[in-house]
Amino acid sequence: MRIYAIAVFLFLYVPIGIIVLFSFNAGRHASELRGLSVQWYGKALSNPFVGDAFVTSLIVAFSVAILSSLMGTAAALALQRLKGTMRVLFDGLIYISVMIPGIVIGIATLVALVTVFDFLNPLLASIWPEGTKPPKLHMGYVSVIAAHTLFTMSLVIILVRARIAGMDRSLIEASMDLYATPWRTFYQVTLPQIYPAILAGFLLSFTFSFDDFIISFFVAGANTTLPIYIFSSIRRGITPEVNAIGTMVLAVSLILLMTAQFFLRARTNR
Amino acid sequence: MGAGSKPNQWLTVALLTPTSIWFLFLLILPLIVILVFSFGERAAVGGYAGGFTFEQYGNLPSRLKAFQNTMLIAPLGTLLSLIVAYPLAYYLALRVSRRFKLLLLVLVIVPFWTSLLVRTYAWIFILGGRGIPTLLEFIGIEGVRLINTPGAVLVGIVYGYLPLMVFPIFVSLEKLDKSLLEASSDLGGSPFKTFMQITLPLSMPGIATGCMLVFILLMGEFLIPAFLGGGKVFFIGNALVDLFLQSRNWPFGAAVSVTLVVIMLITVSLYMRMMMRSKTGRDESLM
Q: Does B193 map to a domain?
């Protein structure tokens, strides 16, 4: 049984190891390992397309993480006081948005936004003052961020709500009995108890958005995120440079995950 | 936080407003738009022209192959993931000491949260011409082609979704009352009988959750068949990318999407009914 477990762990980690190993390839061909070097990291980092894609991914992931942790936490706090039909409705929507495959979110957002833009753009052009160029709405940062946030917001709600459920309610009651204002109770009692879940949610949202390919593929418009860049590079053929970029992407997620795990651990140790 | 008073109700509404806006404009409305589009016609330049016709749904058989592949490989991939995941979950939940349990569980879950794109393309390497086939040539087996086969796609599926299957099964096995297992063996039940009559039935909720999660995500899978199926083994997801981004036949793409969502909804409701019958709680966390 132990041997089986080791085999499965190898199955999970050997492919990742291969990517990392081949990213240090000194040779020019992706599939032949000829000595080790970090030259491809230099190549990747000095490639302006990679730089742009990286910055785009960071901006998107950071905005998604901020938005979803704020909105998700707010919703989780409110939902515990909601009962009846509304509660059922929200629970249903949360589960749907977590479970629906990314491709459906991507397509639906694309189609809906293009329809709205096709309707709004002529309208904007007609009311815009003569002589100046009217703004043209198009797919871009906002559409990617909005589409990613649908999933990650629900994820934060689930995480924070689980934390609220495990919270010591007597502290809140004590705080209210001692005539603390609701705001003060929230700030001094509730928030310190739920912040590990919020931080973990923030980091997981960031990771999800940073790694997502399929939603961005549909709604990013002219913007290229790092996964989209990797995807189109692979279509042209695998090079050691792609391996180097892939390794960096893996490293970013791993660092964030370890941090998230740290906060979730802090939660259980309390 | 007190309950019931007027200002508190306003606070609840205010806290839920951003989330409601998101659900309305990025989930409900887009799904309605897709539904409307699926009854429309294709505009001459691509995109959508209004109308009410069942033509798009009548056209579905032209993408039959994608549906067949998905409906065949997705359940098969789910089953394979379950077969690979169950012993591991069992080992982690019942055979590992407390100290290593959490660490090992984290090691299983971590890959799921790293880029599926990068992890899947590693397999292009391994299964491609210079990977395993070259190794096999060394020992005298020649002409083996692994990539761009259903088998390659299945390997990619198990690899990509294993963590999602292990986790819920682990949780249900972990919650299992260990004294039941002891009682069974004290009463002379063989390990096999104990497993079949106690462990397996009690881990059913975890199995069902894992299978449903994996199956639903597989229904919409694009990357794994794109990388490892090489145009020969394609899923509905690949057809959708083609219809929306390349051939720009939106109404037909919308009809394909609606069909996909309907199949998924049927699966989920079947699952819910199953869960209701077994009357067991389910796990909220996806982590």
A: yes
- pTM value is 0.87
Q: How far apart are CA B287 and CA B270, in angstroms?
A: 24
Q: How far is A129 from chain B (nearest CA, A)?
A: 29
Q: Do A115 and B33 touch (CB under 8 A)?
A: yes
By three-state DSSP, how is residue B19 classified? helix
Q: Is B21 a member of any domain?
A: no
- The answer to whether B184 and B258 are in contact (CB under 8 A) is no
Task: State how far the Cα of A151 lies from the Cα of A98, in Å rounded to an integer.
Answer: 5
Please write the tens of the pLDDT for every residue from B103-135. Answer: 898 889 888 888 899 999 889 888 887 778 777
Torsion of CA A6, A8, A12, A18, to 10 degrees: 60
What's the total number of domains in chain B?
1
A224 has a chain B CB within 8 A of its CB: no
Is the CB of A264 less than 8 angstroms away from the CB of B287? Answer: yes
Rg (CA), chain A: 23
Interatomic CA distance for residues B234 and B221, integer angstroms:
10
- The structure tokens 């979730």 sit at A264
Mean local confidence (pLDDT), B264-275: 80
The verdict on A246 touching B (C-beta cutoff 8 Å) is: yes
Q: What is the pLDDT of residue A121?
A: 86
- CB contacts < 8 A (A, B): 233
User: Is B107 contained in some domain?
Assistant: yes
Q: Is the ipTM of this complex over 0.90?
A: no
Residue B3 lies in a domain: no
Whether A31 and B217 lie within 8 Å, measured CB to CB: no
* Substitution target from B29, B82, B117, B227 for chain A, most A beta carbons within 10 A: B117
Residue B202 has pLDDT above 90, yes or no: no
Asked if residue A254 lies in contact with residue B114, where contact means CB atoms within 8 angstroms, the answer is yes
Range of the domain at B137: 66-286
Q: Which chain A residue lies closest to B20 (C-alpha atoms)?
A: A90
| Sequence-ordered alpha helix ranges (H) in B128-278 | 132-138, 150-175, 178-186, 191-194, 200-202, 204-219, 223-224, 236-241, 250-278
- Alpha-carbon distance of A261 to A204, in angstroms, equals 10
Place of tokens 């694009």: B222
- Which pLDDT band, with edges at 50, 70 and 90, does B279 fall under? low
CATH at B191 = 1.10.3720.10
A206 touches B at CB < 8 Å = no
